[in-house]
Write a structure and sequence with these properties.
The chain has a 15-stranded antiparallel sheet that branches. β11 (230-242) and β12 (248-257) form a beta hairpin. The model is unreliable at 1-23 and 25-40 (pLDDT under 50). The protein has helices at 2-45, 102-105, 182-187, and strands at 58-67, 70-86, 89-100, 110-119, 124-133, 136-147, 150-159, 167-173, 200-206, 211-225, 230-242, 248-257, 264-271, 274-284, 293-296. The protein is an alpha+beta fold. It is globular, with a radius of gyration of 26 Å.
Length: 297
Amino acid sequence: MKTRRKTEIGIAATAAKRGRLHGRLKALVLTALLAWLGGTALRAQCTAENTAFLPGEHVSYNLYFNWKFVWIKVGYADLTVQESEWNGQSGYRFDLLSHTSKKADFFFKMRDTLTCHVGRGLEPLYFCKAAEEGKRHTRDEAWFSYNKGRVNVHQKRTWYSQDRAPQETDYSDTTCVFDMLSILGQARSWKADDFKVGDKVNFPMATGRKVEPQTLIYRGKENVEAKNDTIYRCLVFSFVEYDKKGEEKEVITFFVSDDDNHLPIRLDMYLSFGSAKAFLTEVKGNRYPLTSAVGKK
């Protein structure tokens, strides 16, 4: 009887331990599942269906700078889209290369390369800006991850022109964070019919050094001449900043083709040392016909 009793107690204790173990395993699995669902839910909020471009698209621009009321050609820019894989996840890679000419280098040398990896849902995964501007040579990077209903952004700036240690920061939020290329990739799939003049789009943007609140304002439609002797009907968006008094300051004006491609046709940039413009010269591999072309010069 004692042996049987001990055996029963041992079986009961073992069962209880197994029950507690199973309970802990269930709790761990549930916690992991909830964390995964939280990250998935946030990532789902940060995604969009790509309806605007295909891999292989290549858009070329001429860059102009305003010098004593005269617009002078100072260089070129190229925007490309390719299939990519980042940390085992398939998606797209955007590259924007800006390059001043040798003549312009005498006044101000610029060699900027912006690279962005996004998932199939256009959510940002990695951003890099390698910039050689005048005597400054830097590399700004941002890594994006999604977990427990939050987006985490690790940023790093590396100086190549100065003897300085890299600057690294971390940022976490429950709202979607973009960089300057991934927001462009998503914005190209927005529907123009969803906007009214004056509508604002607010979003946090990672620059590689910090995350800042940004605002896009829809201004309406305008016919714009490109540098390929073609006039396009465009949607106009203003990228603005606000000073301490809350007053609006125009930073960049985007003129985007009013068709399903939503290609940037012209960019007006308001810089601290003057103003610059980028005009479309050529596009290859566009997904749809450029039905926004309304005439020739």
